[in-house]
């Protein structure tokens, strides 16, 4: 067994393209041997950095880098209270970095350490959104021409704040940061006689479930009319409609044969999925808001979902993710790791390692990384023919240009960079 040890652990905080990223770097007793891990929780990045710098760093210095499992288990309970997004992200950064090191020492990509490939590359889905059916459709067309075959479609709901496309009615603000109940509450005349044409622009943008559902169903009808049923389309409800409306919505959606319908309910309401399963066959994706593997067990065990949407760093990295993947395979539930812009390129590389290895891989969410981000992370997975490809290099196969990263510190943000506060017409909160 190697006697290479953890010499130091550091956090790299950088914002190359308007998304705050947290990368953990483990330096070892072997000169030049280091590993990288994703610890990106973009709404609370400095809390994650403190959890690494102040607690995991002193706890793990000197440990043998080979002992990933024991390091994960002992770190997980080193805080006694556990299972939250901040500590799990810190642990993920360490865990992924140790897998990166193990691959470099074995001169193998991590997918080979996990048992080798089940596919040559990982099919991905990309995001489209817009203010109208045509605008979304035109973006779908562009991506189809670039070779993508799975496309998420979201659209503004006229006059409202909408997930996936903040545009409220022209000339109004988005719902962002209406963080006091006394914020600008919309003119509610329309509540008594709802009618698109009469809808007034809502100052600040509010969210109402039924206009959103009508708008989304109209979008699916349009997309199927324009592109037929050969194209795979996906949609993210983002936990914003009351559960019983979600049951109704899933039934309406069935005829549009979505690849999956995501976050139909909040994790707190996920017991409602039982009703959906009894009434329709719309494929269900859930999990980006799961922090504990124990939240996902009943969803897999009771076959309440088809795709595991976990954000890998939110549950603590590759080590727990590979265990959940294995459980999913036994229940024929597939993976669809969370992977928008606020998964770092290192996180995307970690997702890809499991995607190439897992028999029960489903789809990978992909963010088209801007040029500066790609330059900062050499070796980042590439997108071609609608799939994500590994460079086959040892470990996670990715690096970071630390000098460049230092040139892009976190920007100041109003409200500390909190997720948008979304409210209904009466001012009550909507889960994000
Ligand atoms: C998705 C997610 C994201 C989240 C974001 C939160 O399906 O990609 O819903 O868009 O909203 O990652 O920070
Ligand atoms: Mg989502």
UniProtKB/TrEMBL annotation:
Record PROSITE patterns: MR_MLE_1 (PS00908)
Pfam annotation, one family: MR_MLE_C
Organism expressing this protein natively: Candidatus Lucifugimonas marina
Domain Mandelate racemase/muconate lactonizing enzyme C-terminal, chain residue ranges per copy: 133-283
GO molecular-function term, one example from the UniProt record: magnesium ion binding
InterPro entries reported for this sequence: DgoD-like (IPR034593), Enolase-like_C_sf (IPR036849), Enolase-like_N (IPR029017), Enolase_C-like (IPR029065), Mandel_Rmase/mucon_lact_enz_CS (IPR018110), Mandelate_racemase_C (IPR013342), Mandelate_racemase_N_dom (IPR013341)
Any GO BP: amino acid catabolic process
SUPFAM superfamilies in the cross-refs: Enolase C-terminal domain-like, Enolase N-terminal domain-like
Name used for this protein in its record: Starvation-sensing protein RspA
């Amino acid at each position: 067994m190697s006697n290479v040890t953890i010499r130091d652990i550091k956090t790299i905080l950088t914002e190359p393209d308007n998304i705050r990223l947290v990368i953990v770097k483990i330096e070892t007793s072997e000169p030049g041997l280091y590993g990288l891990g994703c610890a990106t929780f973009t709404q609370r990045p400095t809390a994650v950095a403190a959890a690494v710098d102040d607690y995991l760093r002193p706890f793990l210095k000197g440990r043998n880098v080979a002992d990933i499992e024991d390091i994960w288990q002992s770190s997980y309970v080193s805080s006694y209270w556990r299972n939250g997004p901040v500590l799990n992200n810190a642990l993920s950064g360490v865990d992924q970095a140790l897998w990166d090191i193990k691959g470099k020492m074995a001169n193998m990509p991590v997918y080979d350490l996990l048992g080798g490939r089940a596919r040559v590359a990982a099919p991905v889905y990309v995001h489209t959104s817009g203010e109208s059916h045509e605008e979304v459709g035109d973006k779908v067309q562009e991506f189809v021409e670039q070779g993508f075959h799975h496309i998420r479609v979201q659209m503004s709901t006229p006059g409202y704040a909408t997930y996936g496309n903040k545009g409220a009615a022209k000339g109004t603000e988005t719902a962002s940061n209406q963080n006091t109940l006394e914020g600008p509450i919309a003119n509610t005349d329309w509540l008594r006689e709802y009618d698109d044409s009469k809808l007034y622009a809502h100052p600040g943008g509010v969210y109402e479930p039924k206009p959103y559902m009508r708008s989304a169903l109209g979008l699916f009808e349009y997309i199927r009319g324009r592109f037929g049923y050969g194209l795979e389309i996906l949609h993210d409800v983002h936990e914003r409609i009351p559960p019983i409306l979600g049951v109704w919505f899933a039934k309406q959606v069935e005829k549009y044969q979505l690849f999956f319908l995501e976050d139909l309910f909040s994790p707190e309401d996920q017991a409602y999925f039982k009703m959906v399963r009894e009434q329709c066959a719309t494929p269900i994706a859930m999990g980006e808001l799961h922090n504990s593997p124990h939240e996902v067990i009943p969803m897999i065990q009771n076959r309440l979902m088809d795709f595991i949407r976990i954000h890998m760093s939110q549950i603590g990295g590759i080590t727990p993710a590979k265990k959940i993947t294995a459980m999913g395979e036994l229940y024929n539930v597939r993976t669809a790791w969370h992977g928008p812009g606020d998964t770092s390129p290192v996180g995307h590389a970690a997702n890809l390692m499991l995607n190439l290895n897992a028999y029960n891989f489903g789809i990978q969410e992909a963010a088209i990384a801007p040029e500066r981000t790609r330059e900062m992370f050499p070796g980042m997975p590439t997108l071609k023919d609608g799939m994500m490809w590994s460079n086959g290099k040892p470990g996670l196969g990715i690096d970071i240009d630390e000098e460049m990263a230092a040139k892009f510190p976190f920007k100041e943000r109003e409200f500390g960079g909190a997720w948008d506060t979304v409210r209904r017409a009466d001012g009550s909160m909507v889960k994000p």
